[in-house]
Design a protein that fits this description.
Layout lengths: L6 E6 L9 H17 L4 E4 L13 H10 L5 E8 L5 H14 L4 E6 L6 H7 L3 H6 L1 H12 L20 E5 L3 H9 L3 E3 L8 H11 L11 E9 L3 H20 L13 H8 L1 H6 L3 E4 L1 H15 L3 E5 L5 H17 L2
Parallel strand pairs: 1-2, 1-9, 2-3, 3-4, 4-5, 5-6, 6-7, 7-8, 7-9
């Protein structure tokens, strides 16, 4: 037995499947969240991305409100809000409002990447690069706006003052590990796609961690791709949608999530391509027994406090089933 339980959560991009409308996509997001609540998931995070036809989570805080309204106990949040895209004041107001509407259920995960291409980042905010470089200072502004002590300041986010919305630092490189450690904040690493720096980032964060008012000891969340079905073969078939999606990213041909097809030799070869192989390193695909062994090993290696699962599957019924089986695995591994 481990000395503590590893929590398990969901990261969602509100992926738009081929022949599905945005409304259907958002309905599926809510449906998944409602199931996740019954399966014992801790939180459901939505990620901010822009200018991608297959991603529906661009107005992240609006979607968080929709999911929070349709659920009761699940924590709903951002994984993350890309802070350089926004004014810290506006984000504090949005999340302060959400935190008042859904007390003790809203998380604010913050990242420094644009979540889009350079031209779009420029269109969102012309001084994007400057804002990205001043990420630590921008983070501090958000913390200030949320503090009750800011009530005497000239500039206030009145709806955020004293509202309980925990802040998480997201990272895909080692930069964010230093910052999360210095600020004494929980750290979520994007190992579901940025696999190269996982071990260094976790080590830096744990070694440099300074306790804060919000957190006494390091708290690590790690992203994993999870696709589970009743058989290995069926899970592999479902994973062909993800493989096509990754290839689309590398070739610049982003498209809606495609229906799964048989796992062919061509797909197997694509999985061995160095870039694809590296990106999908922490992807656990198979039956419950197969994935359980892989997840157990990953948990033992990372000693993560929480796993956040990304399940990019074409059909919502298959996604829900995969998340149900993952919850069973996590309960059995405690």
């Amino acid at each position: 037995m481990k000395s503590h339980s590893t929590l398990y959560s969901i990261l969602d991009l509100a992926l738009v499947s081929k022949n599905h409308t945005l409304k259907q996509t958002y309905n599926s997001v809510l449906k998944l969240a409602q199931h996740a609540e019954t399966y014992g998931y801790t939180r459901y995070w939505l990620a901010e991305h822009h200018n991608a036809s297959n991603i529906g989570s661009s107005a992240t805080s609006v979607l968080i409100g929709y999911v929070a309204e349709g659920t009761k106990t699940l924590r709903i949040g951002s994984g993350g809000i890309m802070l350089p895209n926004h004014s810290p004041l506006i984000i504090a107001e949005q999340f302060g409002t959400l935190g008042s509407l859904y007390p003790n259920r809203i998380d604010l995960g913050l990242g420094r990447a644009p979540g889009t291409d350079r031209e779009t980042a420029q269109a969102i905010r012309s001084d994007f690069m400057q804002a990205a470089h001043s990420f630590p200072a921008e983070l501090e502004k958000i913390q200030t706006y949320f503090s009750a002590a800011n009530a005497t300041a000239k500039v206030r986010a009145t709806v955020a003052e004293g509202v309980e919305v925990p802040i998480y630092i997201l990272g895909s490189s080692t930069d964010s590990a230093h910052l999360a450690a210095k600020k004494g904040l929980p750290y979520a690493f994007a190992s579901h796609f940025a696999t190269t720096h996982l071990w260094d980032a976790i080590a830096i964060y744990r070694e440099e961690f300074q306790p804060s008012a919000t957190l006494k000891k390091p708290y690590v969340m790690a992203g994993v791709n999870i696709i589970i079905a009743d058989t290995d073969e069926e899970a592999e078939r479902l994973s062909t949608s993800l493989i096509r999606m990754i290839v689309g990213i590398f070739t610049g041909k982003r498209d809606y999530v495609q229906p799964p097809t048989a796992m062919t030799q061509e797909y197997k070869e694509l999985l061995q391509h160095p870039q694809v192989h590296q990106m999908l390193k922490y992807s656990f695909v198979g039956s419950k027994a197969t994935v359980k062994a892989q997840v157990k090993e990953f948990m033992e290696q990372t000693k993560a406090d929480e796993l956040i699962a990304v399940t990019n599957i074409y059909d919502v019924k298959d996604r829900i089933r995969s998340y149900e089986l993952f919850s069973e695995i996590m309960k059995e591994l405690q």
